[in-house]
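Hi everyone,

Forwarding the result from last night's run.
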Amino acid sequence: MASDSADQRRRRSDWWLAPWWVMAVATGAKSFVDNPILGSRRLNRWGLHVKRLQVAHRIAGRRRERLARHLKRELRESFDRDGYLVIPDVLPGHAFERLRNELLGLAAPCRTQQQGDTFTSRVPVGPELLRKLPVLRALLDSSRWRSALGYAASFSSRPIYYLQAIAGGAVDGPPDPQLQLHADTFHPSMKAWLFLTDVGEDDRPLTYVAGSHRLTPARQDWERRRSVEVLASGDRLSQRGSLRISLQELEKLGLPKPTSFHVPANTLVVIDTCGFHARAHSHRPSMRVELWAYCRRSPFLPWTGLDPLGWRPLADRRALWLGIALDWLDRRGLAKQHWRLGGQWRAQHGLIDSDLSRS
């Protein structure tokens, strides 16, 4: 309660931001706690949050209709039904083994973040790495790859890419918050994983609730209730727009139990992140190593392209520039940089070396 009061006092002192709060309604802004318009119980009772969902999903559907011709029919129907794609054997065996060995043995600086008992290491995929690895560059430029990720994102924009390792249960801390089922945001967007190592049932695999990306009447009612109650819930991640859901609530919404993606290496999984997903629990320390992709543009854009940052010379540098920009903002107290420099990436035989893992 004291924290909520502090947030309320801060928002009152930031009254000069009111024009931005109003304009943010027409953007992808999602935090209920940082924007008193988006977090207004009265406005959300009247349907503000649900109306944003309805409009965003309707526009995303139209964008996907224009992108549909680039994706095979069976993949398109599978994604429309489930909200995810699972594509095995993305590369020929010999090409994948070569790419995996080069990525696992990469000598490059990385950034790390700890969430609960889990830490994640990332290396941005930029022009220098793509020049060194023509197999990777060709894969990311292939029509099969771009059509799958583009349809899920509902945009033809080039995603941001990272080489990523997730070490679960590797450090002392509370439970990893990513173990809770959640939707990243209120509108369709995309994340994808090309797994470089086998993911077993006890390796904290990605899980996804099939069909939870669809904006059914039951989902809209749930979203309306959550938007009204969230500021009093004490759940900080939900308050910032990444709504959490329990297994009991899933059943009430008529949704199935999560599907677990324990898959062999060389498998691509693509999801719509407005569907409910999480990392699975594990009874032991675990490690996943993957190429990770992310695309989230403003949900109310009617076009699939026209992305200035999607121009190749800029697109391949966004991941690098994002870290630098957040460092600059963090030093000036304007934003929080959650990803700190963590030494050198090395992933060999399931091990990651970084400053965090040694601390």
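The first strand starts at residue 84 and ends at 87.

Cheers,
N.
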